[in-house]
Specification:
The chain is mainly α. Among the domains are: 7-96, no CATH class; 102-168; 392-488, no CATH class; 510-553, no CATH class; 577-672, no CATH class. It has 31 helices and 6 strands. The chain has helices at residues 7-19, 21-25, 29-45, 57-67, 82-95, 102-116, 123-136, 144-168, 172-181, 190-193, 199-204, 212-226, 240-251, 255-260, 263-311, 318-331, 337-344, 347-358, 361-378, 384-390, 401-412, 442-445, 454-470, 497-503, 510-534, 563-576, 581-592, 609-624, 629-634, 642-652, 655-672; strands at residues 98-99, 139-140, 394-395, 474-475, 540-545, 548-553. It has a two-stranded parallel ribbon with strand order 1-2. A two-stranded antiparallel sheet has the order 3-4. A two-stranded antiparallel ribbon has the order 5-6. Helix 1 (7-19) packs across helix 3 and helix 12 (212-226) runs antiparallel to helix 15 (263-311). The longest helix has 49 residues, at 263-311. The protein is elongated. The chain starts with 6 loop residues before the first helix and ends with a helix.
């Protein structure tokens, strides 16, 4: 807990020394100066210094003047004799402190284990907490080395109890399933299989590229994790920070390391990994669903737009052609079309005119619905049953009850095939349409007889579900990002509602909030309208797209580089010349060793560390610069093939490892900066 001494601390020292004249009266020379400095240091730090270097030189000079002893005497002060022991005893007595006994240290370790180790993982902060507790209890804190051992003992005690509590909540069957995760499989060859073959490998891997196969794979992964049957309350009374730390620790272990670990530690590591991964997989499954529904719609619109662009080439000089057609028809009203009209405008031109006239918004939307229905029924519908069976959906808002009722309806019909007789829902069913089916889809969903067709209705339900999930109106139990939004509130929100509203500077009255928001929107729209009239919108304009007005924001032009940045770049280049980014990445690795955070998702890895480090740097450079692995593989004289680099990308580069590497880099950057 070392801190800088402020000038006011030095000014106060003489007052403090005057109060202890009895202690100074029988001391002279180095002992007098040493006693005064120890006295002041203890008053500021609540402990004694380890050596003379801990006391700032200006403080030594100032105190030496006050006690009328040359500052040079400080070097002669004996740090190991009987005098310093007597000085410490007198100072402790003056402040009402006592030495920290072994019993006190045991109590401090127990206090740390019970109160702090579950919520604070940084050992330096735990050591600071020990010093603060000693100051409060009027105890002279132990030496830094003793405090470090005390903290280590407290952490070990806490971990033993944490593991015992976690294992105590696991059934024998669940422990057996966890052991099966890391059971040695002599038939699996991770080197040749590219890292696949075991569920433990799958469990640690991120989802693949956006697509139906990735969604189905995540559903299968989630069901297998749930098959372990971890208790829902396993970590209910444990901080998320602690569970995340154990999950990160488990993710970096190979199965052989976990098999060698003690039973309680092994089961705790595996259960935290599976518990957190179940939440993460649920989140990724929801995100995949949201992106896939968007992708289905976007693909259909792009396909239809492409068809229309190929089919509807805009006819040039359309007004002139129509004028000539009208004049020819009036001049010879009794003649045939082929004789009068075709010479003015050929057959192909007339067809193009007719096609362009027919290409209205209704036809466009109808064609999009047709393409959507076709692609969904032939391909994407395979995700419906696994998705609804894997995700439990909840809603706190009655306004979204129709969507929940529609989902329940779909679940009841999942096992019924869509044949000619099963293309419609039973007419006796109460089918929610309002809040589920948009107006432009009504004709596609409900036929002339009032029957509701299943395929287009399912599409409408999925779109409504996506929108509700994005707004957090519908949530998923077991997820983190997509969990119940009420869980995001502080635990004391209801009791201290006024405090929390004041913190975010919002009124508690919803009507006042709405009126203030409406006022801001009106003012903004008024400013925008005025800017449109004056032509000062800076590239913002109103355009029409598919018959609807859209606000278009043109990209900004290239801006001038700030003068300071230009000067900084010039100075860097003058001092060190041009430095390639790969060299900077390499130097950062040598300084911090961040590639050590990249562990394989496979069950083992036999590549030498030096070779793996080179491959990782090349892969990270390829991804970070957007050059791509293929281009990096064919350039340079590193001797690594594209296949090897892609294998490293697959096995080592994932979200967890990247986050851990970034944490190490950022912490090293902060540590290298001037703390002041």
């Amino acid at each position: 807990m070392r801190q800088e001494w402020e000038p006011e601390d030095l000014i106060e020292v003489w007052t403090l020394l005057e109060e202890d004249q009895e202690g100074l009266r029988n001391k002279s020379g180095a002992n007098r100066l040493g006693f005064a400095l120890l006295l002041k240091f203890f008053e500021v730090e609540a402990r004694f210094p380890e050596d003379a270097g801990e006391i700032p030189t200006p403080a030594v000079s100032y105190v030496a003047q006050q006690v009328k002893v040359p500052a040079e005497e400080w070097a002669a002060y004996d740090w190991s004799g009987r005098a310093i022991k007597r000085h410490r005893m007198e100072i402790r007595g003056a402040f009402g402190f006592r030495e920290c006994s072994e019993e006190d240290q045991a109590q401090l370790a127990e206090w740390l284990a019970v109160e702090l180790c579950g919520v604070e993982l940084n050992r330096d902060r735990l050591a600071e907490a020990v010093v603060a507790r000693c100051r409060k209890d009027r105890l002279e804190p132990p030496a830094p080395g003793q405090i470090a051992r005390l903290v280590g003992k407290a952490v070990s005690t806490f971990e033993e109890r944490f593991c015992a509590a976690a294992v105590g909540r696991l059934s024998a069957a669940t422990r057996s399933r966890l052991d099966d995760l890391i059971a040695e499989d002599v038939g699996a060859d991770e080197e040749s299989a590219g890292g696949g073959g075991t569920f433990f490998t799958e469990l640690k891997a991120d989802p693949g590229a956006l697509g139906l196969d990735s969604l189905l794979a995540e559903v299968n992964k989630l069901q297998r994790v749930r098959g372990l049957q971890l208790p829902p309350e396993l970590f209910a009374d444990v901080s998320e920070k602690l569970v995340a730390a154990w999950r990160a620790r488990a993710a970096k272990e190979y199965p052989s390391d976990l098999r060698a670990a003690a039973g309680p530690v092994r089961y705790t590591l595996l259960s935290t990994l599976c518990h957190v991964r179940e939440t993460e997989i649920t989140d990724s499954l929801v995100e995949l669903f949201i992106q896939l529904v968007q992708k289905i719609n976007t693909r259909a619109e792009k396909k239809v737009e492409g068809e229309f662009h190929r089919e509807l080439r805009r006819v040039r000089g359309k007004e002139g052609i129509l004028l000539r057609l009208a004049e020819a028809a009036v001049a010879e009203p009794g003649s045939t079309v082929r004789k009068v009209i075709y010479p003015v405008a050929g057959e192909s031109t007339l067809k193009a005119l007719a096609a362009e006239a027919a290409a209205n918004e209704a036809r466009y939307r109808a064609r999009v619905r047709t393409v959507l229905r076709s692609s969904y029924s032939n391909h994407w519908r395979r995700m419906l049953s696994p998705l609804l069976n894997a995700l439990e959906l909840k809603c706190n808002n009655t306004a979204y009850r129709p969507v929940m009722d529609a989902i329940d309806l779909l679940k009841r019909y999942l096992d019924q095939p869509i044949a000619k007789e099963g293309a419609f829902f039973d007419e006796a069913e109460k089918i929610p349409l309002g809040g589920v089916v948009r107006e432009e889809w009504r004709k596609a969903v409900v036929d002339e007889r009032g029957r509701v067709e299943r395929i287009p209705y399912e599409l409408c339900v999925l779109v409504s579900l996506r929108d509700a999930l994005r707004r957090r109106e519908i949530w998923v139990p077991g997820a983190n990002r997509w969990r119940n939004p009420e869980d995001d509130l502080p635990p004391d929100f209801e009791d201290n509602r006024d405090v929390h509203y004041d913190a975010i500077r919002q009124p508690q009255d919803p009507q006042a909030f709405i009126e203030a928001l409406q006022k801001r929107l009106r003012e903004a729209l008024t400013r925008f309208d005025t800017a449109l009239e004056l032509g000062t919108t800076g590239g913002v304009d109103i355009v029409r797209r598919h018959g609807e007005p859209w606000i278009k924001v043109s990209p900004l032009g290239k801006q001038e580089e700030p003068e300071n940045l230009v000067a900084l770049k010039a100075e860097i280049e003058r001092r060190w010349g041009t430095i390639d980014l790969i060299d900077i990445l390499k130097e950062a690795e040598f300084a911090t060793g961040f590639t050590g955070e990249f562990t394989s998702v496979a069950t083992r890895e036999a590549v030498p560390k030096a070779v793996l480090r080179r491959r990782l740097l090349l892969v990270l450079f390829a991804l970070g610069t957007n050059m791509g692995i293929k281009r990096v593989a064919v350039t340079g004289k590193h001797g690594e093939s594209e296949a090897v680099l892609r294998r490293v990308r697959h096995l080592f580069v994932n979200r967890t490892n990247l986050r851990a590497a970034l944490v190490r880099l950022v912490n090293a950057t902060f540590a290298a900066r001037d703390a002041a």
